[in-house]
Amino acid sequence: MDKIKKNNAVVLLSGGMDSAVCLDYAIKAGYNIYSLHLNYGQRTESKELESFNNICDFYNIKNRLVVDTSFLTQIGGSSLTDSNIEISESQLGSGSIPNTYVPFRNANILAIATSWAEIIPAQAIYIGAMEQDSSGYPDCRKSFFSAFESAIALGTKPETEIRIITPIIDNTKSQIIKYGHKNGVPFNLTWSCYSNSDKACGHCESCILRKRGFKNAGINDPIEYY
């Protein structure tokens, strides 16, 4: 049986708002969805995995891959993977990279996604990275994704053609929230907090970005905060 299908896409789905909106874009573009999630020892690993599965259930996505990349915890260097490093308070606008940055995480994710995409085969990898309204992680820049796409072309079979699609790269949080609200994205199933898995802390950088986005969009955030 020929397993080749047209219009397949691997969607990186963390369980957060950005990746959920990115998933909606991929669905609306007509792709058959293959959802990829990483457990890398982050503080809210179990909650993010729960959100991933709930979002997949919501969209009736059957093709799911959860990969253990706990070596990122062994490498350390991030407050998300090392409990000995306190999560820094929000420093939005400072121009500095916060200690929640997991060194070269997106490259690891994209490498795994590429391997899966080549086997499926898929023609696209969707990632919900944002450059304009974000924490300023270096592996969330357009230039990075362009360079990685070139690496994919050089490092895969000649017949392989995989694009990296970043549909919300230029959006603000309020813009993706307005889009999601209009298109029925289940924000109630998403998780953004870096610290907690029961109620969001409300003061880590990810929570601040989320709360500010909902406020600017004029829409109520459906999750609970301390």
Describe the structure.
By secondary structure, this protein is α/β, with parallel strands linked by helices. The chain has one domain: 3-Layer(aba) Sandwich (Rossmann fold). 37% of the residues lie in helices and 11% in strands. The chain has helices at residues 17-28, 45-58, 71-75, 105-119, 142-155, 173-183, 205-217, and strands at 8-12, 32-39, 64-68, 124-126, 163-165.
Radius of gyration of CA atoms, rounded to a whole number: 17 Å
Helical/strand content category:
alpha/beta
Spans of at least 5 consecutive residues with low confidence? none
The count of DSSP E runs of length 2 or more, i.e. the number of strands, is 5
The end-to-end distance, rounded to whole angstroms, is 53 Å
Strand content: 5-15%
The strand line-up of the biggest sheet is 3-2-1-4-5
Q: Please tell me what the overall shape is.
A: globular
Keywords:
globular, Rossmann fold, 226 residues
Helix-strand blueprint:
Blueprint: E1 8-12, H1 17-28, E2 32-39, H2 45-58, E3 64-68, H3 71-75, H4 105-119, E4 124-126, H5 142-155, E5 163-165, H6 173-183, H7 205-217
Helix pairs in contact: 1-6, 6-7
TL;DR?
Helix content is about 35%, strand content about 10%.
